[in-house]
Amino acid sequence: MATRAYILLIEGKRADHPSFKPGLIKKGFHVESVPNGASALVYLTEKSPDLVLVNAASMRTSGLRICQSVKDKAPGLPIVLVIDKLYIPPEKLSADIILQEPFTLQKLLNRMRPLLPSDQKPMIQAGPLQLDVEQRCLRCRDRKIALTPRLVTLLKTLIERVGEVIERNDLFRTVWETAYTEDTRTLDVHISWLREAIEKDPRHPEFIKTVRGVGYRLDVNLSDTQPIVLPKDLRK
What we know:
Layout lengths: L5 E6 L9 H6 L3 E5 L2 H10 L4 E5 L8 H10 L5 E5 L13 E4 L4 H8 L10 E4 L2 E4 L4 E4 L2 E4 L2 H12 L5 E2 H9 L8 H14 L9 E4 L3 E4 L18
Parallel strand pairs: 1-2, 1-3, 3-4, 4-5
Antiparallel strand pairs: 6-7, 7-8, 8-9, 10-12, 11-12
C-alpha cells in the first residue's frame, strides 16, 4: 500500500515569498513546518520525516548552517535546499539537491521524488501501523522504527489477523516456522521487544493485547486508515 511521504519543511514567513506547504499538501504529502533550524532539531529528536525541505530563500540565509545541523542530527536524511542566490560553493552545502529560484512546483516534485521511499515497496497497514516488510521498517504516528527480521514476521502476522486472538502455539509455529511448541517463552520476549518499539507505554499496551491463557491480539482503529491491502507475494 502506498503511504504519504512525510516532509519536514523549514521555512520562514515572508509576504513576498509564498509557502511551499499548501502545494505539497495538495499533492498528497504530509507536511510539518517549522520556522528555523533550531526548531527543526527539536522536531528531529521526536520524529523521523522522509525528507527535509529547507527554504533558505524565505529566511534570507544561505542554508549552510541549517543543512549541516540537520545532517549532523540525522545522517542519511535527504535534504532539498531552496535558495534565491548561490552565496557559497554548492559542494560546501550539506544538501542532496539545491534548487535556485524561480522554479515550478512540478520541478520541485521531480527533484524530490528520487529521494523519497518508493511506493512500490511491500507495505502492509493496520490503523496507524505501516510496516515495510522489505526494508524492515515500521512507521507509527510520525515515528520510524527499524525492526529485526523476526519482529517483522511477528508484526506482519499480527497485522494480517488484526482484531483476532491468535493462540500462543499458533503464533509461535507461524513466526518461527516450527512444529515444536513445548517452550514458547521466546515468543513472550519478542512480544515485549515489539511493545517497546511501538507502544507509548509498554506496560499498558494500546496495540498488542495479552489474552490471558490464550495468546495475543492486535487492536487498532481501522477507521484511521484504508482497509489492509497485501501485495500478492505476501498473501500466504
